[in-house]
């Protein structure tokens, strides 16, 4: 595959995996938690590196997942003590992220791990970091990791589709049916953390946040059906990757930044023209009821 092909495949996998997870984030009204976890996983990555002295392997995933779960647990603990949700998220994510930044500057500043890389990513370098895959040949490590995570996300969503549906829309009813709501919540947070760190090194925190939230928000304007929302969100994420790459080449600018910008363009189009909840459709319904 060509250099451009690997970049587009990597970004598309990010868009698909984040788009699917983002639907549940939007419906559960946890969009800001995605922003928090996408930043606090930096602390998990740094600590994992300090222990393993390697930027590769499962240590990064484990460290990031634990950091994501820690973020969720601390936020919920503050909420249980009466602190407002947005304030709890803001306090926890800024504190844990700043600890990660401090550790980078003081402990791991001599390796290829820095704040700019964490925020913007290095997707243009993805095709050069190769590993040998049996029966396939040399493949970028980021692609292998993202294919694995995307497959895992799809499997978990399909296996527990009914559980996700009922715990998202009516947790009390789910609990009355014997569904372990808290277990499902932490399983979901684990998926958010794993998906985030899989995309983190390639595209950075800014694009991860954009892909987790904006395609799902766009899909929510087009339909009320959960399965269709998953499909549309994944499609919008993949479409944003392609459109963003075209914009980046045209303007000779950041690829990840352009892809994040493209998610905003798709949302703007959806906000105006979506047949279900788009602005034009809403105004038309209002006129018909007058």
Q: Can you offer a commentary on this structure?
A:
It is a single chain. With 290 residues, the chain is mainly α. It has one domain (3-213): ABC transporter involved in vitamin B12 uptake, BtuC (Orthogonal Bundle), CATH 1.10.3470.10. Helix content is 79%, strand content 3%. The chain is built from twelve helices and two strands. A hairpin with a 3-residue loop joins strand 1 (130-133) and strand 2 (137-140). Helix 9 crosses helix 10 (226-251) and helix 10 packs across helix 11. It is globular and about 65 Å long. The N and C termini lie far apart (57 Å). One of its GO terms (biological process) is response to zinc ion.
Please state the structural category.
Answer: mainly alpha
How big a fraction of the residues is strand?
Answer: under 5%
Order of neighbouring strands in the sheet with most strands: 1-2
Order of helices and strands: HHHHHEEHHHHHHH
Features:
single chain; 290 residues; mainly alpha; ABC transporter involved in vitamin B12 uptake, BtuC; two-stranded antiparallel sheet; 2 strands; globular; membrane; transmembrane; ABC_BtuC-like; transmembrane helix; cell membrane
């Amino acid at each position: 595959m060509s250099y451009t092909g690997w970049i587009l495949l990597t970004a598309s996998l990010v868009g698909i995996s984040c788009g699917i997870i983002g639907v549940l984030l939007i419906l559960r009204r946890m969009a800001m938690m995605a922003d928090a976890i996408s930043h606090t996983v930096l602390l998990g990555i740094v600590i994992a590196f300090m222990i393993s002295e390697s930027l590769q392997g499962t240590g990064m995933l484990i460290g990031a997942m634990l950091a994501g779960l820690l973020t969720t647990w601390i936020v919920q603990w503050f909420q249980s003590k009466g602190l407002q949700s947005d304030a709890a998220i803001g306090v926890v994510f800024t504190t844990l992220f700043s600890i990660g930044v401090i550790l980078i500057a003081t402990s791991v500043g001599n390796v290829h791990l820095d704040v700019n890389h964490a925020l913007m990513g290095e997707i243009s370098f993805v095709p050069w970091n190769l590993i040998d895959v049996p029966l396939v040949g040399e493949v970028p490590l980021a692609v292998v990791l993202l294919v694995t995570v995307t497959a895992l996300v799809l499997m978990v969503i399909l296996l527990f589709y009914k559980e996700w549906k009922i715990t998202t829309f009516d947790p009390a009813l789910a609990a009355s049916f014997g569904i372990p709501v808290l277990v499902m919540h932490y399983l979901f947070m684990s998926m958010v953390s794993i998906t985030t760190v899989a995309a983190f090194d390639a595209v950075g925190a800014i694009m991860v946040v954009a892909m987790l939230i904006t395609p799902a928000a766009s899909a929510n304007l087009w339909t009320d059906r959960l399965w269709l929302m998953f499909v549309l969100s994944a499609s919008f994420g993949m479409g944003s990757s392609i459109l963003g790459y075209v914009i980046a080449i045209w303007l000779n600018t950041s690829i990840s930044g352009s892809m994040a910008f493209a998610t905003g363009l798709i949302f703007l189009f959806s906000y105006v023209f979506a047949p279900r909840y788009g602005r034009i459709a809403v105004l038309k319904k209002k006129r018909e009821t007058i």
